Every structure is written in structure tokens, then in C-alpha cells.
Amino acid sequence: MNHARPKHADANATGEVNRTAGVVIASNRAAAGTYPDRTGPVISQWLRDQGFDPLPVRVVPDGEPVKAALADLLAERPGVIITSGGTGITADDRTPEMTAGFLQKQLPGVAEAMRAAGAAKTPLAVLSRGLAGVSGTTFIVNLPGSAGGVRDGLDVLAPLLEHICTQLAGQRDAGHPAAPVPNSGGHHGH
Amino acid sequence: MNHARPKHADANATGEVNRTAGVVIASNRAAAGTYPDRTGPVISQWLRDQGFDPLPVRVVPDGEPVKAALADLLAERPGVIITSGGTGITADDRTPEMTAGFLQKQLPGVAEAMRAAGAAKTPLAVLSRGLAGVSGTTFIVNLPGSAGGVRDGLDVLAPLLEHICTQLAGQRDAGHPAAPVPNSGGHHGH
Amino acid sequence: MNHARPKHADANATGEVNRTAGVVIASNRAAAGTYPDRTGPVISQWLRDQGFDPLPVRVVPDGEPVKAALADLLAERPGVIITSGGTGITADDRTPEMTAGFLQKQLPGVAEAMRAAGAAKTPLAVLSRGLAGVSGTTFIVNLPGSAGGVRDGLDVLAPLLEHICTQLAGQRDAGHPAAPVPNSGGHHGH
Questions:
Q1: B contact chains, 3+ CB pairs < 8 A
Q2: Residue A113 has pLDDT above 90, yes or no
Q3: Which DSSP category does C142 fall into?
Q4: pLDDT at A176
Q5: Of A23, A90, B115, C86, which has the fewest CB atoms closer than 10 Å, so is most exposed?
Q6: What is the mean pLDDT of chain B?
Q7: CA–CA separation, A109 vs A133, rounded Å?
Q8: Which residues form the MoaB/Mog domain (chains A, B, C) (predicted)?
Q9: Taking CB atoms and an 8 Å limit, are A90 and C167 in contact across chains?
């Protein structure tokens, strides 16, 4: 929180969409180096294709390190943060729980749409518990860890991302607080 | 709460569906008179077409005035309250938060169905955070503020409204409390 | 909680999927014997067809008895518990509320998929408030009380159940706690 102001954060002073983007990969195996991270590069490239400027991918173990990575990234005030992994049903899968406390408003329809898009290909897509929502003026979304789940999620986000970030930029410029409250813990929308 | 008993409330004593309906438009611009309210008349006419008897439309600014309007309307014990506006992602959009505290039971499937119906026309429909649920024996639903969002939402409600109100009327006649608790704050279904 | 270890629980010590299944029917009329339970046998037969070993169906009145039946069944540590009934909007319909406190993780996509499957046949299917989720290493799901709602729900579960139980078995064998905490009350996923 007492980080020096990162260069990307300066973009926040303009009236334009904040095009800085964070990417967090939640995977015990990828963080331990026993398994290569394959979804981080896909998400970063997709963000570039959408006109965003991704920060280096953060690959962290499941659970509390995801919360720490989100808090760290939110201090840089990116326009969007995309996570992948940890949305399933095992005890290790805790990305939604690590994300929930940062969201002042949840967007359940984004999560629904991603599950519906995935379910058209595999019934197991309905098991993702990933959240989407707003933290300050940052849009955060949890994608599944699988390559297919990431692709389906990005397809759902493609027609939404610019609109969401434009709305959050307008809100920021109207004097609403840009700073998230990473440790608030319980102020989600409903 | 200390209002004189309105004429519509007397319908509650019969064994029939309570056909009184409230309409709340949440819009800073419409409430300030800088923009005409176009969705209120559409919703009122639709309610008449469904055999309901709408009270005058209440046009209020976003946020706390929405909660006050709901509390005021609930004191009249209508069968249904439909709101429009304030379901989006900006800081002003707080209609779901203003509604949640009144709902003893949420009906997430109604909100899902409205988003799905809208998404068939525009992907942005998934961004609505509108709630639906039951407060005492009143059904409450949050529609988006856009004309298209209202139309899609009403299309989803058309085959449901009579059934919902019939079930709530049966519950009322079985001796369950008809009176909502507008300031309860936290007794939603799940 | 101080029950003798039931025979089915011994299956938990193996590395295999826990094929014990519980079935709870929530219905005031069926519990009073004024109406035969028709969905319990359908669910039990479906479970057998899926390779599971159903315990005797428990038919209980709506509300608190559902919570007691769930607590009692969870003490036997089954792999899955399916409930039917009490998911609607009347004051008696409280199965989701009785279930929520047992779920450490909710699976909203399973409930969404069941409502969507039902809505393809009747719009009223969107009114089900049934939950799905994980309690310890037990998967719990609330189906509606109607024969059609049960059938639609089971069709959605068919391609998911083996995968869910395999994942929960792996988690159990990895040393995560198998024992649910039936009276925890508030540790659900999000």
C-alpha cells in the first residue's frame, strides 16, 4: 500500500479509460514450477488485442497468496484484473473467496454468462464458482483454470470490457473514489 | 407506517390476488426534471394490461431515496412493486442494495431469466444487478433503466406474475404476516 | 454428532468415490401421510442407476425438520444428499434456508442450470430457489418438489455427479476434513 506510484497509475489522472491490466494465475503446480503456466500468456495477449496494457503475469499458489496478489495489484489501480484458476470445488479452490472481499459490487450476470457459454461445450463448466465485480474503479473477474474455460470466459468478456471500463472511468472522473479498500473484507454488493 | 389505511389495502382482506401495484423509477435526471421519465408509463400500462391497478409512479433520485420510496410503498401493502433504473455498475447505481434489505426471500432465477432474455439482444444486458424477491406478501423486482431492458424484463414477468401473486395471496390468507418489515436490513433469503 | 460410526462411513476410508447417498423429501402433506411421496422413489432409483447406494428416503415436514434431517444424514458422511421440495416462494418453503448453513461452498451454476433446463418447459421453473454446494466432502443439492422439476434437475446432475464425487473423494484422501460442521450456520462460499 505504501508502494511508490507506478507509472501505469498516472493514466488514472486523464479522462480516458484506464488500460492497465493485471493477470493473476492461481495454481499450486504452476507456482511451484512443476507445471508451466499456459493461461497467463493467453490472457495477456487477449488483453493486448483489446487495447489494454497488461502488467507481468503473477503466478501464485491457491488460497491466501491470491488475496495478497490482488491487494498488491489493486494498489496499482489497474482498469481490469483477470484471474485464472481456483474456481472449482476442492478445498484448494478458493479464488472466489479470496476475491469476494475486494468487490463493492458483484456482477452475477457476468459469471452466469461465462458458465452458460462453457456449458454449451461441457456440462462441467457449470461448476465454476468464479465471481465478477467492481473494486473501486477496477473490474475484477475470475476465470476457470482450464484452457477451454479461459477461452470461453474471454469470449464473454470481449463485448463487455470496453463498456465496463468506460463506465468506471466516468465514475472516477466524477470524483468517486478510485482507491479500492483491499482489506475491507465484507462490503460486497448483495 | 402510521399512514391512514389506503383504499387498496382493503383488498388484502379478501381471498383474492392483491392487484395493487407500485412503480418506482430511480433516476437522478428524471427526478431533477432534466429528462422525462419514459419507463414509468410503460410499466404502469403493462400492469393494467395484466389486470393490476398501479399506484402513481414515484420518480426518485438514485440511492437512498429508492429505499424510502420502497418503504413508503410497502406500507400500502401492494401485491407487486416494479422498479426501473439504478441496476448498473457505477457508484450511483444502488437500487439492488436499496432493495435487498426488504427481501425475506430472493428469487435469483427471475433475475437470471431477465438477464438471459436481454443478452439475446445485447451482451450488455448481463451487467444488470437487479434483484427479485418477496417482502411480506409483496413481490418486488428491479428492472434496468433502459427502455429495452424494461421491455425484456416485463416479457419475462408476464407468465410469472399471476402465479406469484396467487401464491402470496394464499400465504396471506393462511395467516402468515402480510406486513413487511421495511427497515429490517438483513433478512434476505440466502 | 455422537452417533456410532455408521457402516456406510467406512467407505470413506478407501480411495474410492463415496457412493452412499441420502434423500430428503420436504413436504408437510407427505410427512403427515395425507399425500403419498412420489419423488423419493424416483430419486432413489436414479441414484441406483448412477451407481450410488441410497439410504432410506426421509420424508419430513417443511422447515426446521429439513435441517434436522440434513444434520442427521451428514453425520453418516454420504457422498451426496438430494432434497426435493420447499424451494418455492411461500412462507413454508424454507429448504434453501435450511441447507445454506451446511454449505462451505455454494455452486450457483448448478442451480442456474437446473432452472434453465426447467424453464425450457415451463416459465415457472425460474422460481425455484434451490441451492447446490459442498458440505465437507458431501455434495448437497435442492430439487423442486414437482415431478417435472425433479426430472429436469436429475437430468442436469447426470453428467456432473461422478465428477463432483471423484473430486471430493480426492480431497478427502488428501487429508482435508471429511466431517461436515452441520451447525456452523454461516460458512458458505460467497
A1: A, C
A2: yes
A3: E
A4: 55
A5: A90
A6: 87
A7: 10
A8: 22-164
A9: yes
Q: If you measure CA to CA, which chain B residue comes closest to A111? A: B126
Output the average pLDDT for chain C.
87
The type of residue at A87 is: T
ipTM of the complex: 0.84
Predicted pLDDT of residue B190: 31
Helix (H, G, I), strand (E, B) or coil at A102: coil
CA pair distance A68, A51, nearest whole angstrom: 27
List the single best residue of A80, A107, A168 to mutate versus B (max B Cβ within 10 A).
Answer: A107
C114 touches A at CB < 8 Å: no
Q: Are A190 and B96 inside 8 Å of each other by CB?
A: yes
pLDDT band at B156 (very low <50, low <70, confident <90, very high): very high
**For B108-126, what is the mean pLDDT?**
97
Handedness of CA C79, A94, A140, B92 (dihedral sign): positive
Distance separating alpha carbons of residues C135 and C102, to the nearest angstrom: 6
Per-residue pLDDT tens digits for A46-94: 999 999 999 999 999 999 999 999 999 999 999 999 999 999 999 999 9
Which of B90, B116, B126 lies at the smallest CB-CB distance from A110?
B126
Is the Cβ pair B167, C88 closer than 8 Å?
A: yes
Q: Rounding to the nearest 10 degrees, give the CA dihedral for residues A16, A20, A26, A27.
A: 140
All domains in chain B, ordered by first residue = 19-173 (3.40.980.10)
Of C76, C111, C116, residue with least CA distance to C95: C111
Give this prediction's pTM: 0.87
Q: Which chains touch A (3 or more CB pairs under 8 A)?
A: B, C
A111 touches chain C (CB under 8 A): yes
Q: Are the C-beta atoms of residues C104 and C189 closer than 8 Å to each other? A: yes
3-state secondary structure of B188: coil
Which residue on chain A is closest to B99 by alpha carbon? A190
Closest chain A C-alpha to C84 CA, distance in angstroms = 21
Q: Which of B89, B116, B131 sits opposite A107 (nearest CB)?
A: B89
Reported as a pLDDT band with limits 50, 70 and 90, residue B172 is confident
